[in-house]
Write a structure and sequence with these properties.
The structure holds 2 protein chains of 2 kinds. By secondary structure, chain A is an alpha/beta fold. Helix content of chain A is 34%, strand content 21%. Helices cover 46% and strands 7% of the residues of chain B. Classes of the chains: A alpha/beta, B alpha/beta. The complex binds thiamine diphosphate (TPP) and magnesium ion.
Chain lengths: 326, 371
């Protein structure tokens, strides 16, 4: 049976199902209780599961992640909400020195199945610290799995897969797409969903591969549609660490061109790593260098300039055009 | 798992009751002229008017967001007026009343909430640092600044003091505890001014702490005091004393201003989801402005002509704020690349030049009638 859900509601439904099927699943964060989170992603969970399982934490991100690690050591599966991308950083120490490394430190004796949910990305006209794309820091850190979603179907399944994973998973939510809708079959088995770390061909094509993730997938699909001269294949990456190179290289070997688009600054970003890998593995198939389209290497600007800062349809099309000038 | 420790509310310093009567306090004597009293009233009314206008401007789509100070005027004006010109204030993001006292113009605040700047004023010019959105980050900056004051030998009766503003929620951050500790072990000249407005978005103080917040100071080894945050005289007198204590080299102090956030957390928030209106009613009877007006009237310090004059001034400020907000120009797109680094950076310069070319390509295309 399918239900038409927004991305936000799909994550909410996925959280609810995970909490129903495993009493060890907890939700914690700032304002996640009565308020249901500032984006209402945990709406009604407090009412239905109570204060022991839906924890309104003190205002301290290091405390949230640090205690989640402790809860995980005691057998719980905490799902932590970080209110906005720019407020993750007080928790950087607990995340990078502890969460990512506890398992190896214990030689595999312990697991820390903590999920960090982080609404990320811009385009909502917000004040500073509410529009950033910090995913590269996480993808750069061994021990963390990093995923993001672009539609309600993936939102519903991947939040459950993230919770079921025995590793820490950083789950990035494209906040400007929270209200995008899709039909979701909420009665299917979790096992029937595509594995969490696979990429997805969102639109087949022959002339060039356009790779995007999270909020940029929609823009990439629009760009593919808008380019009437070329037949563009769009890949929704879904998993940033590990990356599904099988899907990417299969596509690039067919099309000979790769354009990577993300909201984060281009330099040292996820796109840079994929470009390097693809250049190594597909060198003789490439007709053009891998093109990256992203934000400038400047701090996220005041909101009246964000439309210039964020890669939009025109900038993605410009990137595609450049791939065809070689 | 409930928190059953008796939450008997401790005494708070109050110099002006909600009924407008003066109270004496042995530790905080206040000697205030009729003119100063009228000045405080004027400040309170005007900042509330600016705030009301800003909320309206957000509703009309002129601002992206606004964090209202409604209900917290006395805490901010009292403490703001206790500062001397050479003192330094480190605000959070709701301190529009303190900003007012430091000479920041409302349009400078609006420009941040409209999204045309990130603040952009020179903190040294005003003795007022930039707004800080990352909760509690400024507590450490204030402490470090105070350590600098100390090292400059700028202490003494006419020395410099530092004040740091933050909320009840902010007391939970590690940064706040670290700031308290750094200030204590260094005996730094900083006053920590916590506005306990009873809410951190949807969470009440019980979710942040098990003890009254002012008592946190004792554990770090410096004095803490709770004041009636809706009493402008208590805020003025206690902050003045704490600043003096700091500037004379006696170290930090914590002031907890017990007040109430009468509005939503910000214009994005819907408080009906988490709080009851009875609480709001109770606090309405403790309004920070009404009691000053009653006092001025009862003591014959101000007459109807004075109140009418302040109201007229408030109206004209409201109008000016509205006009100035609408006139704030959108920044140039190339502003994105400005002031990222103090030293030249060729990489950014190249990106800036490329983007300028890219923008120009649209103008060329427009001129040719394509696209
Ligand atoms: C580090 C960090 N985490 C989360 C937030 C999101 N946030 C903004 S305001 C706020 C509540 C602050 O409450 P309080 O300190 O009491 O200040 P008030 O808003 O009541 O003035 C939260 C959680 C933030 N700005 N910074
Ligand atoms: Mg508060």
């Amino acid at each position: 049976m399918t239900t038409n859900l927004t991305i936000g509601k799909a994550i909410n439904a996925g959280l609810r199902r995970a909490m129903e099927s495993d009493p060890k699943v907890l939700v914690m964060g700032e304002d996640v209780g009565k308020l249901g989170g500032v984006f209402r992603i945990t709406d009604q969970l407090y009412k239905d599961f109570g204060a022991d399982r839906v924890i309104d934490t003190p205002l301290a991100e290091s405390g949230i992640i640090g205690t989640a690690i402790g809860l995980a050591l005691r057998g719980y599966r905490p799902v932590c909400e970080i209110q906005f991308d720019g407020f993750f950083f007080p928790a950087a120490n607990q995340t990078f020195t502890q969460l990512a490394k506890v398992r190896r430190r214990s030689a595999g004796a312990v697991t820390v199945p903590v999920v960090l949910r982080i609404p990320y990305g811009g385009g909502i006209g917000a004040v500073e610290h509410h529009s950033e794309s910090p995913e590269a820091y996480f993808a750069h850190t061994a021990g963390l799995r990093v995923v993001t979603v672009a539609n309600a179907v993936d939102a519903y399944w991947m939040i459950q897969q993230a919770i079921a994973s025995d590793d820490p998973v950083v789950f990035f939510e494209p906040k400007r797409r929270y209200y995008d809708k899709a039909d979701v079959d909420t009665t299917a088995d979790l096992g029937s969903a595509a594995p969490m770390h696979t990429a997805r061909v969102a639109r087949p094509g022959q002339d060039a591969t356009l790779l995007a993730y999270g909020p940029m997938v929609k823009t990439a699909l629009q760009a593919a549609q808008a380019d009437t001269e070329h037949d563009i294949e769009v890949i929704d990456l879904r998993s940033l660490a590990p990356v599904d190179y099988d899907t990417i290289t299969e596509s690039v070997r067919r099309t000979g061109r790769l354009v990577i688009a993300h909201e984060a600054p281009v330099s040292h970003g996820v796109g840079a790593e994929i470009a390097a890998r693809v250049t190594e593995s597909c060198f003789y198939h490439l007709e053009a260098p891998v093109i990256r389209v992203g934000a400038f290497d400047t701090p996220y600007p005041q909101s009246r300039l964000e439309e210039h800062y964020l890669p939009d349809l025109d900038r993605v099309l410009d990137g595609v055009d450049r791939a065809f000038t070689f | 798992m409930s928190n059953n420790t008796a939450q008997k509310q401790p005494e708070l310093v109050q110099l002006l009751t909600p009924e407008g009567e003066l109270r004496r306090h042995p530790d905080y004597p206040i000697d205030i002229s009729a003119e100063e009293m009228r000045g405080l009233y004027r400040d309170l009314v005007l900042v509330r008017r600016v705030d009301t206008e800003a909320v309206a401007l957000q509703r009309q789509g002129e601002l992206g967001l606004w964090a209202s100070l409604l209900g917290q005027e006395a805490a901010q004006i009292g403490s703001g007026r206790a500062l001397r010109p050479g003192d330094m204030a480190f605000p959070s993001y709701r301190e529009h009343g303190v900003a007012w006292c430091r000479g920041i113009r409302p349009r400078q605040l609006l420009s941040m909430f409209r999204g045309v700047s990130n603040g952009g004023w020179d903190p040294h010019e005003y003795g007022f640092h930039l707004y800080s959105i990352v909760i509690a980050s400024q507590t450490l900056h204030a402490t470090g600044y105070a350590m600098g004051v100390q090292r400059d030998g700028a202490l003494g009766a006419d020395g410099t003091a530092v004040i740091c503003y933050f909320g009840d929620g902010a007391t939970s951050q590690g940064d706040t505890s670290e700031a308290f500790n750094f200030a204590a072990v260094n005996n730094a000249p900083v006053v920590f001014f916590c506005q306990n407005n009873q809410w951190a978005i949807s969470e009440p103080p019980e979710r942040q702490a098990r003890v009254p917040l002012y008592r946190r100071a004792a554990g770090f080894g410096f004095p803490g005091v709770r004041i009636d945050g809706n009493d402008v005289l208590a805020s003025l007198a206690v902050t003045r004393a704490a600043l003096q204590h700091a500037r004379e080299g006696q170290g930090p102090m914590l002031i907890e201003a017990f007040t109430y956030r009468m509005g939503a957390h910000t214009t994005n928030d819907d408080p009906s989801r988490y709080r009851v209106s009875a609480e709001l009613e109770e606090w309405r009877s403790k309004d920070p402005i009404e009691r000053v007006r009653t006092h001025l009237t009862n003591e014959g310090i101000a007459d109807d002509a004075f109140f009418a004059e302040v109201d007229a001034e408030a109206e004209s400020i409201g109008e000016r704020v509205r006009r100035e907000c609408r006139e704030l120009p959108d920044p140039d797109p190339l502003d994105i690349f400005h002031e990222v680094y103090a030293e030249p950076n060729g990489h950014i310069d190249r990106q800036r030049a490329d983007f300028a070319d890219y923008l120009a390509s649209f103008e060329d295309a427009d001129a040719e009638g394509v696209r």
